[in-house]
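Q: Predict the bound structure with beta-D-ribofuranose.
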Amino acid sequence: MRRIILDVDTGIDDALAILYALRRPGISLEAVTTTYGNIDIAQATRNSLQILEAAGRTDIPVARGAARALVRPYTKKGSVIHGANGFGGIKLPEQKAEPVARFAPDFIIDLVRAHPGEITLVPVGPLTNIALALMRAPDLAEKLAGIVFMGGTIHHPGTPSMPSPMAEVNIFNDPEAARTVIASGALLTMIGLDVTMTTKLTEEMIARMAKRADAANDLAGRVTMEAARAYLNAYQRQYPGITYCALHDPLAVAVAEDPSLVTLQPMKLDVECVGEITRGQIIPDLRKVAGVVPNTSVAMLVDAPTFEARFEAALGG
Ligand code: BDR
Ligand code: CA
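A: Predicted complex:
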């Protein structure tokens, strides 16, 4: 059983990742921690609580985290991919539950210290909460089972809306945090665009899952599939000719449970924090010289058909 804390900027694929984590028997979702990114922190927290409410899992604690990056302000209003409410404009049922009364980085520290060697962090938004936790608790890196983060890219072009052509948005939103996490000494796995952009959520898959959610009276499945339709439409506007949307965040959860889904390459990574046209770019040092010691296992290939089938089975009810 893989015990995970999912750190989310919910977000449509973040919501899909939450449901995937809830519905895989090999995963125990210990907590959801929230961050800004796709949407501001208040809305990301609300969306996370509402997904859990719709799934009937208000027993999962939600801790609200950082409202902005370590260094730069957060000024974004809405998202071209995730819409003005971060959920494709789809209304989620109101939640009754509240976030726990603890700042997400502190909540992460508490949980990891309570279960040393047991918890894997799965951040799928900017890495601010994780960097803050690692800075506050120098013992955290060695007490974690690992960190599997969705973000960055090695060869695939970056997120289209980014000013840096090779920057992926989660890293671009807080490069200083990403750099802190990468230098932390924790066991790191990077799930970047090189692999996530080859995982496909198609119209046919959405239709099949929506049908099963309807038949099973599965509210969480139904609303996320409605949002998935909006996500697919947004993808088709952003990437002309594309016939699918990518399962970025669910893939990170899936790899935390089963690393055999990807081919990992050890690399020494760093993050460009000041570059005029490269801010937010992950820089791998692939030179074979003394001092270049890998700090991250980077996913370079994914068994997309196996993962997509697992995703559909998990969410399809
Ligand atoms: C990442 O950016 C966000 O829009 C998604 O939720 C995902 O975490 C993909 O680049
Ligand atoms: Ca995300």
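A: The first helix runs from residue 12 to 23.
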